[in-house]
Amino acid sequence: MEVEVTVYSDRKDGLLRAMGTVVIGCGFTLLRQRMVPTPNGIELWLNLKGEQGRCWNWKISSAPTPW
Hints:
alpha+beta; 3 strands; disordered C terminus; 1 helix
């Protein structure tokens, strides 16, 4: 199964590392990535491949997001 994930953050520091930890921990393989600045912060796009239904409730931090 291939999955596309878009993550928004107010800062770039540590974002790719945090998402990489989740991706690997859930058994996915990273196929492609793109990180771009936006007016609201950073947008990280990931294209992943892995097993269906293995890990869907991801929590990176307890900080509230504006989206």
